[in-house]
Specification:
The protein has 17 helices and no strands. With about 325 residues, the protein is an all-alpha fold.
Length: about 325
């Protein structure tokens, strides 16, 4: 591995030498599909999936390697601004950040997110009680698993736990009033949710549920994908303008969060692990209000609704507990 992306020319591998074999592409892509499926529903973390399959450390190393300097070095290598175009130098920088791994993994994640969000959008319209009951079970079981994995032994950790719970509990159903329902809230949602996606035990979709944006963004992404498909067959650009603006805003917020908030959380974990974990886990517990508040507002509770809601929540809880069983070697202290 070279000492820096900007001076990788002399040590660059032969062109194309670093391209992984097809079997590794397929394996990484499937891992991405599993991670994306987990991240698209609240209470299940793509970071936990990465831990289970053994790529979490590689993922974090690759993400932290993608710095402004690395991006700048890659772009300079493909322009005549810095000694002429050099594909080999660009490839060396790409290898420096484990680019093939990130690219293939991201492709798998995006594939799963598109599919799962379409399912969520459909259920939100046709069976919201089933959808949010399932979410409630996912979140509740995740809270149980995470609470079992931490200990609160100091006043600071106790205060952080109370603060995390109150933040999630009070924010659930109130985000629209605080941020408005427009693009600023979408940007905030992207910033925080994408940061959470790489942390084991904390789901980015859980953040979207707390902020009241999960169903909205699922429907918007589905509309955007449909618009792109229509455009490919001669449709109008009008179909993608509105949804596209929301998607781009979310992605922009996600990029900001990935390279700022996610690093801040890692720093906080290194400086005060017990306090930070107490806050993050308490967020999950406090978020239990969100699916209940959504069903109460959209449908209202009756005996039949309660039976369906809590019946489906059992299914969601079983999914998380099954994942926890296969992740038996996972310790939250290893984050």
């Amino acid at each position: 591995m070279s000492s820096s992306p900007d001076h990788a020319t002399d040590e660059a591998p032969a062109l194309g030498e670093s391209v992984p074999p097809l079997r590794e592409w397929a394996s990484t892509y499937l891992i991405g599909v599993f991670m994306g499926s987990a991240d698209a529903v609240p209470g299940v973390s793509g970071g936990t999936i990465a831990l289970i399959v053994g790529v979490y450390e590689r993922l974090i190393t690759a993400i932290t390697a993608v710095t402004p300097r690395a991006v700048s070095g890659f772009l300079k290598a493909l322009t005549p601004l810095d000694g002429g175009v050099s594909v080999r130098r660009a490839e060396a920088v790409f290898d420096e950040v484990d680019g093939w791994f990130l690219l293939i993994l991201l492709t798998g994640i995006l594939t799963a997110v598109v599919i799962v969000t379409r399912i969520v959008a459909t259920l939100n319209e046709s069976a919201p009680v089933v959808l949010y009951g399932f979410f409630f079970g996912l979140i509740a079981a995740s809270g149980v698993v995470l609470l079992r994995a931490i200990s609160i032994r100091t006043v600071g950790a106790g205060v952080a736990a109370v603060a995390g719970f109150l933040f999630a509990f009070l924010m659930s159903g109130q985000a629209r009033e605080l941020f408005g329902g427009g693009l600023p809230l979408v940007f905030v949602a992207g910033t925080v949710a994408v940061s959470a996606m790489i942390l084991p035990g904390l789901s980015g979709s859980l953040i979207l549920v707390i902020l009241g944006q999960h169903a909205r963004l699922s429907e918007t992404l589905s509309a955007f994908v449909d618009g792109l498909a229509g455009l490919a067959t001669g449709g109008s650009t009008d179909a993608i303008t509105g949804p596209g603006t929301v998607v781009v805003t979310f992605v922009a917020g996600g990029l900001v969060g990935l390279f700022t908030i996610s690093r801040a959380v890692r720093y906080a974990l290194n400086r005060s692990r017990e306090v930070t974990l107490a806050f993050l886990v308490a967020l999950v517990v406090g978020a239990l209000r969100a699916p209940i508040a959504t069903v109460r507002a959209d449908v209202g509770f009756s005996t039949s609704v309660l039976v369906t809601f809590f019946g489906v929540s059992v299914v969601g809880a079983v999914v998380v507990l099954a994942l926890d069983h296969y992740a038996a070697d996972f310790e939250i202290e290893d984050i």
